[in-house]
Amino acid sequence: MFPYLITKQRYLENGLLNGVENVTNNQTYINTHISDGLLLGRGNGIIETMDGQNITWVSSDLGRLIDNKWVFYGVTLFNNTHSDSLSVLNNSIALSKSASGPILPDYMWLLELFIEETIFGALK
Question: Under DSSP, is residue 99 helix (H, G, I), strand (E, B) or coil?
Fold first, then answer.
């Protein structure tokens, strides 16, 4: 039995955050190829605005080879930032979908966690 193939890839992407903010996403992934058409990726990176504000993140992704293109589904955890324009991402979790290849969009959906508070009044 042979060990799994492990690859390292780095990407630099430019895009829009919330459809408004121009950002750069500098990312690194370590991928473990489980089979010919399946890989497990662990990533980390930093999103930076044009004025130098930033937030870091980590992710876990599952990649499948579909029609000769890698399609990735993942979960991303954003760390804390002091940046005003990126504070919406503070300690948030996102689901993502992306595909390999030039000029293919990445999609990310932030999860909203609802915390229900119950206030108990004093019994009389």
Answer: strand
pLDDT per residue of the chain (124 residues) written in tens, 0 to 9: 568 999 999 989 888 887 767 999 999 999 999 998 999 999 999 999 999 999 999 999 999 999 888 899 999 999 989 888 888 899 999 999 988 877 777 888 888 765 555 454 444 4
> Cβ–Cβ contacts within 10 Å for residue 53, how many?
17
Query: What ranges do the domains of the chain cover?
Result: 5-110
43 Cβ neighbours under 8 A, 6+ residues apart = 27, 28, 29, 30, 58, 59, 60, 61, 74
pTM for the predicted model, two decimal places: 0.82
